[in-house]
Structure formats: structure tokens, C-alpha cells
Design goal:
Peptidase_aspartic_dom_sf, globular, ATP-dependent zinc protease, hydrolase, peptidase activity, Cathepsin D, subunit A, domain 1, nine-stranded mixed β-sheet, Asp_endopeptidase
């Protein structure tokens, strides 16, 4: 039922607090199953028998413009088909997302999205069952707020 869902536009500002990104532009894509985040670099390693990924967030997405490194256990590695039909094996992590006043965990894969207009893509699994997308709308949650990144 649509009554209990939040209606958002095809692009919105969202937050990834565990990755120190209070605001990042995201394309809400119901045609994509999984969500993706642009990272500058990544490397996998094993710690205490668990596979982890160390990755650098794009400094353009951060106010201080410094490359920040993060690490997270790899939840899974899955083959992802991009919009051009190319398949790649990508690491998936879990992280909280803040969107429309709600915070909840989502799975995202880490990849180089440098050539894309949006550093983040939110797929169906991050939207269901909370959010409906109206493709006629855009930035329904408001515009970029530089003060939020202070």
C-alpha cells in the first residue's frame, strides 16, 4: 500500500553517516537491484579469518576534500551487471543510510563510478518497502546544504 511509503524523486541527497558522508547525491534507480557507491581505491585483506575491504571515499564528496579511508567486513561478493551490460565481481558491505528522516542499514557494492553523474546509486533492495519513486520528482528532500557537512 502506498499510504505508508515515502514518495521521493529520481534523485535525492542522502547520508551515509558511518562513512562520514552527511550528504551525497544519489540516483534512485528502480531498474537496478543493488546499490553502488563510488570509491577511489579499494583493496581486500583478511583479518582474523574474515575478508575485509579497505576503501577510499572520493574526496569531492567530502567538504574537507581529503581522501578518507574506511574498512568494513565484506558481506558478500556478487557479480553485478552495469548499465552497459558489463559484469564485474564486486564486494558488498552493510552501512546505515539516512534518507527522508529515516536511518536503516543497506547493502552497497563498492565500485568506480567516476564516469557516472551520481556517486551513489540506490537500487530496489534499498528502497523496498519504505520508498516509492516518482520519476517526475527531483530533490524532494531539498537541495544540498553545505552547513550539514560542516
Amino acid at each position: 500500500m502506498a499510504d505508508d511509503k515515502i514518495i521521493l524523486g529520481w534523485r535525492e541527497w542522502v547520508g551515509l553517516p558511518a562513512l562520514e558522508l552527511e550528504q551525497i547525491r544519489a540516483k534512485l534507480d528502480t531498474g537496478a537491484r543493488s546499490s553502488s557507491l563510488h570509491v577511489e581505491q579499494s583493496e581486500e585483506y583478511v583479518e582474523a579469518g574474515v575478508l575485509w575491504v579497505r576503501f577510499a571515499i572520493d574526496p569531492v564528496a567530502k567538504r574537507d576534500r581529503t581522501r578518507t579511508w574506511f574498512a568494513a567486513p565484506i558481506l558478500d561478493k556478487r557479480e553485478v551487471t552495469d548499465s552497459g551490460g558489463n559484469r564485474t565481481l564486486r564486494p558488498f558491505i552493510k552501512t546505515p543510510i539516512c534518507i527522508a528522516g529515516q536511518t536503516y542499514e543497506i547493502e552497497i557494492n563498492l565500485t568506480n563510478r567516476r564516469e557516472m553523474l551520481f556517486p551513489m546509486l540506490l537500487g530496489r533492495t534499498a528502497l523496498v518497502p519504505r520508498i516509492m519513486v516518482d520519476p517526475a520528482l527531483s530533490y524532494t528532500l531539498g537541495n544540498f546544504d553545505p552547513e550539514a557537512m560542516a
